[in-house]
């Protein structure tokens, strides 16, 4: 393992995707951004589109905009996202937030499995997903129980225990495909097959896998999925999410938030709800067009680069990061809180440290590195192969070593900021 900076420069020079970095706004070249898994960088092309959306589309075209691409945007952009996740164009639609989409699809799934009372998930899942499930269980009258299977080590998913738990009472298995803290990557095909053998449906949260690992929803037989567009898809802060419903399930499932955008003929303004055919029934009300439209050029960048090439680079980069951790950071008390096997993880690496929060704050305030902190002791380093360079990774680990060697963390004894 070479730890010198020349080696990092050599890796960048040989990287076939390196040129994509120029397609993004890099406002401060000294800032090392390792948070593209929480908020992706701004694509340059999105600046022009944002100006056009506001000045021309809204300012000049006014209401005519709805017939000039706004009304169809959710389906059009969904069809592009479908190409990133192994789905058909009419199986994915952009809508609402990930949390709201989870609510809609989980309720639809539970109603499609009447009499079955168990929802199976794990303790590595994103807390909001569990909160939504808890709310659903209460709303549906308290007959459902949520079985949250514990990870053996807080890093790896409890695959065997999950399989063992699935039975004739299981209505739904729902997991984060790549888990938000450790980056563990689930075997989607294997678990979906196990759920189907028990007669249950599956709902995958792709927030940390879309745009970071190849996803094959159709090939895995997955029933339902949801995901986020402001992380690896670079859609912008709070950009709407997407949802996937396997085609043959679309006519069987009903959207519990049955609004006019999901009505068969919304502009008839009839007084009774009749669900639209196909994926559009999972829409509810008017979608935020300014932020929806900005997802499209960002998805185009990923399609241009190609998921296989992105995954190959991501694996090289997380391996490089793990190598630098072992050589330079492990002796300073940093632990690896992600799977060691690159095939079993997504595109972020969590490093633990007893002083993790202080280190995180010192990196942000004193050393111009932006990771995120995830309680209790994770410094999460997001590698986004479209724009993260090998030099970024080298420089980040050098600065992380400095923060511990110089005890810069000791200055940050205050509580965590509201958003970490
Ligand atoms: C980021 C993320 C979300 C975000 O949900 P919002 O509704 O957009 O706040 C949901 N699930 C997972 C697994 C995430 O990583």
Structural commentary:
This protein is of the alpha/beta class. The chain has two domains: 5-30 and 306-411, Aspartate Aminotransferase, domain 1 (Alpha-Beta Complex); 48-303, 3-Layer(aba) Sandwich (Aspartate Aminotransferase, domain 2). It has helices spanning 5-13, 44-61, 73-84, 98-111, 127-139, 159-165, 188-197, 217-220, 289-293, 295-305, 307-329, 356-366, 390-405; strands at 32-33, 92-95, 118-122, 145-149, 170-176, 201-205, 224-227, 241-245, 335-336, 348-352, 369-370, 372-374, 378-382. Strands 2-8-7-6-5-3-4 form a seven-stranded mixed sheet, with helices on both faces. α1 (5-13) runs antiparallel to α13 (390-405) and α3 runs parallel beside α10 (295-305). The chain is globular. 48% of the residues are buried. Residues 97-99, 126, 128-129, 176, 180, 205, 207-208, 228, 241 line the site of pyridoxal-5'-phosphate.
